[in-house]
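Format notes (please read before filing issues)

Several people have asked whether sequences and structure tokens are stored in separate files. They are not. Every record keeps both together, in the order shown below: the sequence lines, then the token lines. Line labels are part of the format and must not be stripped during preprocessing.
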Amino acid sequence: MTLIINKAGPLTTLQDLGRSGYLRYGVNQSGVMDTVAARLCWGLLEQTPGETPLIEVPLGGLQIQLACTASVAVVSTGFSVLHNGEPHGASVRLTLQAGDRLDIKAGASGQFAYLGLHADWAIAPVLGAFATHLRSGVGPSGALKAGDRFAITPRATLPERTKLPALDHGENTLRAVAGPQQDFFDEAAVAQFYDQAWTLDAASDRMASALRGDPLNHLKGFDILSDGIAFGAVQVPGSGQPFVLMADRGTTGGYPKIATVISSDLPRIAQARPGTVMRFNACTLEHANAARHAQTESMKAWLSATDTVDTQTLMSHNLISGVTDGT
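Then the structure lines:
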């Protein structure tokens, strides 16, 4: 019983929630870029997050074929999904028969789609995770390519869900708490960071989202003793142009961090395409915790929605927001 990769765009990888507990040894966390879409994909498969690997599909797309019968789930914010050429919505749960083809292609929005199987994979985790970090070569496989095959053992098939609600990550505003080196910037620079519109640059990747705008001036220089970097940390190097550190970030860094994007809003920038205009909104830890709770409840609502759900009603829950302002 085999999963066959017929086509795979560049940087298509196996991922989970990342490799925890190894940063102090210089091992990157990696893991999925969009934790909301990934958790919903596991939820559709009735699995706990990280129970099986997911295939993270970038804009280059993916085509798979199964040599067995198995249920699969795809979750995205705007990709196209085709089962033997028949189009479906951007998110779907299907049963593939032996020989069936599933295509996932870039659509109107989003940077990543997630594909999961209701099956056990015959691959061993590396340092406790299925996450792939291509730069270091850590993970159960490299970038997926045409001809790759994976042995799987399907579980009992699940009912199909072909009319799932749209996945909406909300507006392009990123709530952020003060960074550990915010004092490396004067009040004018901090105000500029939050007041200014920033454009997502094409140089962005799984390591960092590069933002472009009027440069920020440093008050105490732009070098610090290297320290740990959180997912969402906003570094400002000598250029004054900020970077939001993402899943494949380094374990430490030597530039001051003006802010940290709250975890609930990271999927917004993970799924944003180059040219997207982003803004930051100052947020307290209390608001960040409330937003995380609201997001969890919204994901439950999305997963429990019937296939005849009123999508406008569901989207009012907004899978990222829940707290609109940190002021």
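For reference, the curators noted about this record: Helices lie at 35-44, 187-195, 266-270, 285-304, 311-315. The radius of gyration is 20 Å.
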